[in-house]
């Protein structure tokens, strides 16, 4: 496998062959939309992304990583453009693209699984066992076609995170790539999110009307809970939460502009679970740093506040944000919160009795809860107790191992990454933070922390032997 040193990865279109493949997919997609052949893209786009992903995975692993992230960020936006032009289709095969790209890392699992147990890979193995059990039960109890998408939502994020962990030797290059991707990701999706709130583009309105997602607001300017280029406010807020935490560790000259757009969009998503996760992440992030780095972080936060506070206190943004913030302390009049609480109470007793589980593909039928409103119920209903115990046990073991790292004292990326994981996992009572796009963020940063630990352990051993 060809790998490159961190110094080779800068903003240029090198290596030419890799960028030819990436830009070929971009230009083909843009051309189809320009000539009103968007319907062709419904299968061509995910297939093209998959084959480009295979090529980059085999030849240019760092570019593969960035490609996978951007496909995850932008694919729902591409889907909305296609549907707006060629008619509503749901479920849309376009949305399979990021998970197909990440499922390529199954090859990493095959290659590294035998020895990963001896290299701190037990948490990933336990989680895989839980998913495997849920898959078997799902194939028995549900139709095979109903299992495919849930399997991708469960397995692709975990495989992607395991891939980052298994390739720990390239941790510095992976770290640099992820930092760059998220700085620009926050900037691009934050700006589009603010624009989405202000003008409500036609393709976004079309999607909102046809999806009947009442909880996402009304299809009009100043009426939407923004989801930017992603598929719903929840995953967007999770991605933004991670990106905003990483901005604290970035030295990029655009980080302050990105923070202004990012925090505004993050607040306009109105996802209270992600706001809570961000607060938990920051509180766990600051104490993990050396005093010198803590002071630098505080200064960075103050500068970012100067950029953000005027924006969020300006109309037409302030009204929607302040109303949502007030609901955090006034739960009695919060209809959404009370509906979730009622649905959770109704379903919990039944969920606790699900010893074998209903398997992947099972969808909770509740008038008060959506399919993604509670991660605990999802675990109990899908893989059941037999699958939940190894899956959740793997996650808890992973979190414990992450917070044992001493390298976080001098590598701020590790501190930020594990704070991100904690902030995401803390939302498990209010969503499915380890599945789909939110899961990609969780498992990826968990994989990076574990990779960093292996990398620095190897560096210490090498220095001692020399």
Note the main attributes of this structure.
mainly alpha; 19 helices; 3 domains; disordered N terminus; 466 residues
Structure in words:
The protein is mostly helical and 466 residues long. It folds into three domains: 12-104; 111-166 and 362-466, no CATH class; 181-329, no CATH class. It contains 19 helices and no strands. It has helices at 16-34, 38-59, 61-86, 97-103, 106-116, 122-141, 144-166, 171-199, 202-211, 233-247, 255-268, 272-285, 291-312, 317-326, 335-352, 375-381, 384-402, 412-425, 436-465. Helix 2 runs antiparallel to helix 3, helix 10 (233-247) runs antiparallel to helix 18 (412-425) and helix 12 runs antiparallel to helix 18. The relative contact order is 0.12. Residues 1-11 have low confidence and may be disordered.
Q: How are the elements arranged and paired?
A:
Blueprint: H1 16-34, H2 38-59, H3 61-86, H4 97-103, H5 106-116, H6 122-141, H7 144-166, H8 171-199, H9 202-211, H10 233-247, H11 255-268, H12 272-285, H13 291-312, H14 317-326, H15 335-352, H16 375-381, H17 384-402, H18 412-425, H19 436-465
